[in-house]
Amino acid sequence: MIFLAVIFIITAIWTASIPRIETWQLMSGFGLSFLFYLLIMARAESSLIYILFITSIAVRVGLIFLFPQLSDDIYRFYWDGILVESGINPYGLLPINVDTNNLFPSEGWLLNVMNSPGYYTVYPPILQGVFWLGALGNDIYGFSIILKIIFILVECIGFYYLVRYLKNKSLDTLNVFWYFLNPLVIIEGVGNLHAEVLMIALLSIFLFYWNKGSMVKASIFFSIAISIKLIPLILIPFLWFSKRKNRLTFVIGTISTLLLLFTPIWLTGKWMSYAASLDLYFRKFEFNASVYYILRAIGIWWKGYNVISLLGPILGFVSMALILWLSWKKRNIFQLTGFSIVAWFVYLILSTTVHPWYIIPLLFFSSIHANYVPILWSGLIFLTYINYGTQPFKEQIWVVVLEYSLILIYIVLTYRDILQKIKSQLT
Fold it and tell me: What is the number of helices (H) and of strands (E) in the chain?
């Protein structure tokens, strides 16, 4: 096991150091790290839990001084951070309209490398606070190091509460490593600073207190998770319709905490620009979609042009309607974790954009019950980085077809086991 752990650490760190344009090196590195991850989990047992934890932490620590290679989102993170550090509200302010010569002339280069200078920021207030802490570093490299240390510390706290939650539910604590040791989670999280892993850590604390019936604490940590990434909002209908004792306390606590945390947006009247950027997500961005790509092809055949501006909002509405229906109609059969898996799956399947780090929450909730479909997906979705091997960028549809076809084949071949896993996630 120790030999496998060492090889896994080396291959995962090596993968995180490869630029995304180096397609075959990147695929080889991730393929090896994912293989060793599966071998480790196949041999995992309770007596090895400390080795597994040390391995998970060691690979994250090994990424601290590596600059993110797979995403250019860090440049917008840093931009927002230096705005907050300079006492400027980042909401309602377009980077292209900022006079960098007067405000921070040494950072004007960011406008040429960030991927969204013409869009308002979509990052919630708590995450902006994390960016502010990172901006206390001397430069973007220092920013990256500070954020990675924060990520590791918060993930460790989340790990602690998730283990406690699994023990209280009489579930196998080894399941936590299907998530915590997953190379996609490590490389996209600490490696490339995608805040889904911070959100998951807060949701772990929320799950623990929700299970205990401590609704005030549960509402606070659930609200903080939303203030890192908005996506946990899809769970609110289920939490509202559930017949959990003290549900009203949770709802009031959540609303109150969110109002407080989102003060920089609503109190300053910047919510319109914030909403505008969220609307752009549904009407403009597309990547690695499934149902949407099929409907897009039909739309192009029918209309003669890309109908994303119409399809995006419609699919978003359908996704919301399905989640609402499941929350109300099926609230008596689902556990919270089981519903979360279904809700995230519906959201992802109907999304116009599914980047690799988007499936991290689905992987998290699935790992609690060792549901293997999202684990397989976490290995296949990394293939989408092949798209960045061509300049200019061009999405390779064959990658999308291969990814979703293999997932579908796996579901068909193992549907009996999947049904058994689903039953374990019901009350």
Answer: 23, 0
